[in-house]
Amino acid sequence: MDLIGKPLLKELGLTSSAIFLAFAIGSLIIWATGYSVIGVYRNILAGAFFGRYAIGQTLTQTTPIIFTSLSFLLAFRCGLFNIGAEGQLYIGAFAAAWVGFSLHLPVVIHVVAALLAGAIAGALWGFIPGVLKAFKGANEFVTTLMLSYIANLFTSWLVSPNGPYHGSQWANQTVRIANTAELSRILPPTQLSMSVILAIVMALLIWYILFRTPTGYEIRSVGANPDAAEYGGINVNRMRILALTLAGLLAGLGGAGEILGTHRRFIDGFSPGYGWDGIAGGLIARSHPIAVIFAAFLIGALRAGGMRVDRAGAAPYDIVAVLQGLVIFFVIAPSFIRLSFVKSKKRKV
């Protein structure tokens, strides 16, 4: 079984040690730049965990990162790099917003319709590079990245002053979605919504698909060795298309949750980089769907705490971004070292 028993304890030990080392090095950097190490970490903890509002802010930041981390890891499990989660998030967010303010439906149906619209839009944005990879051999790293730029710029134009859905003279955003399309908030006065429950459910569902279904086995087999998988009768191209489509669906669903639960309208630039945080979350979690919840929570806590650090004047927000980068580096470095060692041994043989 995957990551159960001793393997789980080993992975937890390695990850915990890596995170501790990252914060230790981060302390040296904070000290070297003239800021108070205790002051920075105290504000991070206060902004992320101390009080109802802080916890709500952390979970609000965590929610979209769970979706984008799942998006990255699902493709990664199939041997693919989905670098376009940010664009898939945006295209899904706008699709959900459009359904939210354009249609008039009963409460539950309206929410479901808007979520489905976001998921389908994101899935389409993942399906395109999947097809290009399967039938043209196009590098998915490039195609997902390019489509991400297209989605960001296209949705930005849609709500610009010259765009068809510009809904406010004060900002580039749509009109507010209908009340019937809103996801309920669960920890007022924060913006935390039912989207966090959906994110956790999706993490459990992806775990089940990957490790308890034939389709999940085929996805992992293609990721481990596509030639052996094809020799064993697995349709490699089909699995690659499916993996990237589902990856896009997850990111699009995350974007829909942000609009319906957090912002209640599409806002240009609403994401501070959740798609890129998803890459970090997937790597920190070592591509395991359940571990993604905790990895995303760590990144969400750093984001929420970082805002407190910046507001309190303890240090610039960039210091927290450096800490996040150090965590990613130290968590994934052992994997790269092992991979390099294996490759060097193969070359010697």
Summarize the structure.
It contains 13 helices and no strands.
Q: Which descriptors would you attach to this protein?
A:
single chain; about 350 residues; mainly alpha; ABC transporter involved in vitamin B12 uptake, BtuC; 13 helices; about 75% helix; disordered N terminus
Structure notes:
By secondary structure, the protein is an all-alpha fold. The protein has a single domain, classed as ABC transporter involved in vitamin B12 uptake, BtuC, CATH 1.10.3470. Helices cover about 75% and strands about 0% of the residues. It contains 13 helices and no strands. Helix 4 packs across helix 11 (about 275-285). The longest helix is centred in the last third of the chain and has 32 residues, at about 315-349. The radius of gyration is 21 Å and the shape is globular. About 50% of the residues are buried. Residues about 1-5 have low confidence and may be disordered.
Mean pLDDT: 90
Q: How many distinct beta strands? A: 0
- Number of helical runs? 13
Number of domains: 1
Task: Assign an overall shape.
Answer: globular
Q: Which blocks of ≥5 consecutive residues have pLDDT under 50?
A: 1-5
Reading the helices and strands in chain order gives HHHHHHHHHHHHH
N/C terminus separation: 31 Å
Q: Kindly provide the radius of gyration, computed on alpha-carbon positions and rounded to a whole number of angstroms.
A: 21 Å
Overall CATH architecture: Orthogonal Bundle
> Under the CATH scheme, which class?
Mainly Alpha
Give the fraction of residues assigned to helices: over 70%
Report the biggest beta sheet as strand number plus sense, adding barrel if it closes.
none
- β-sheet strand percentage: under 5%
Q: What is the structural class? A: mainly alpha
